[in-house]
């Protein structure tokens, strides 16, 4: 019996959904995810840039296995291994506004004390600015420690509230993602941005871990055109994939 691939797509967040935070996907689990292509289309939607997503998926060659890959919330869009759309935050905001905002971030970071501070506090990406109070050069142990510190002290939440008060006229969104940072981008440039490229599908599923308000999966998870599911991590996601597969594994028995 040959399975029929339906006109629907399952989208997956990467960090915390298909992988542990900033870790690479388990090769067996990657094969398990790709097996879903037998019954529907599949895609990735991450806040990281394409290089980081490729790293977490085991290498750039595996991105071609997905029908769609949306990095930086979909501001860089790939189909069948080829980038077909890209939006630039510098062009959208203008260099003067962008630098004023970045300077404001650095000024605030100079006033806060944390258990540790490392390097790369601001990361410019094509479609967004990633702000990291502890610094992206921190070790995995320091990353884990900051995550726990932030749960108690709300470092990122306070940082975002400060920026909203300092730059009230800027049309920006702020979303917390991963363990140590938050993303900043023009309003509407959250993960729902990718939906404009998926209008041909009858159903759109999405699975992510940061699905509460303020998390970077929330807008896509709660969108009326999306059937959203919250996951606790790769093991939980595996069970979700199996349910999707079983639900839609309809075969063609025609001779």
Automatic annotation (TrEMBL):
GO cellular component, one term: cytosol
Amino acids binding Mg(2+): 13, 15, 209, 221
UniProt cofactor(s): Mg(2+)
UniProt keyword Transmembrane helix, yes or no: no
UniProt record, GO biological process: GDP-mannose biosynthetic process; mannose metabolic process; protein N-linked glycosylation
PANTHER family on file: PHOSPHOMANNOMUTASE (PTHR10466:SF0)
Known partners and oligomeric status: Homodimer.
Protein name: Phosphomannomutase
């Amino acid at each position: 019996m040959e399975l029929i691939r339906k006109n629907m797509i399952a989208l997956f967040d990467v960090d915390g959904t298909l992988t542990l935070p900033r870790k690479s996907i388990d090769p067996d689990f990657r094969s398990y995810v790709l097996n879903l292509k037998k019954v529907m289309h599949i895609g990735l939607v991450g806040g990281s840039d394409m290089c980081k997503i490729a790293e977490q998926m085991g290498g750039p060659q595996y991105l071609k296995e997905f029908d769609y890959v949306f990095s930086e919330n979909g501001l860089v869009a790939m189909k069948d291994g080829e980038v077909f759309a890209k939006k630039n935050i510098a062009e959208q905001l203008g260099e003067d506004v962008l630098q004023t905002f970045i300077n404001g971030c650095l000024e605030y970071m100079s006033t806060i004390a944390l258990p540790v501070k490392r390097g790369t506090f601001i990361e410019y990406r094509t479609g967004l600015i990633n702000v990291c109070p502890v610094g992206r050069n921190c070790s995995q142990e320091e990353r884990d420690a900051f995550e726990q510190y932030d749960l108690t002290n709300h470092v990122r939440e306070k940082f975002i509230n400060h920026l909203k008060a300092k730059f009230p006229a800027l049309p920006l969104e702020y979303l917390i993602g991963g363990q140590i940072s938050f993303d900043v981008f023009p309003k509407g440039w959250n993960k729902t941005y990718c939906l404009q490229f998926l209008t041909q599908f009858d159903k759109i599923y999405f699975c992510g871990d940061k699905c509460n308000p303020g998390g970077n999966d929330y807008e896509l998870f709660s969108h009326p055109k999306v059937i959203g599911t919250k996951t606790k991590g790769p093991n939980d996601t595996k069970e979700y994939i199996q349910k999707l597969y079983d639900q839609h594994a309809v075969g063609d028995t025609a001779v």
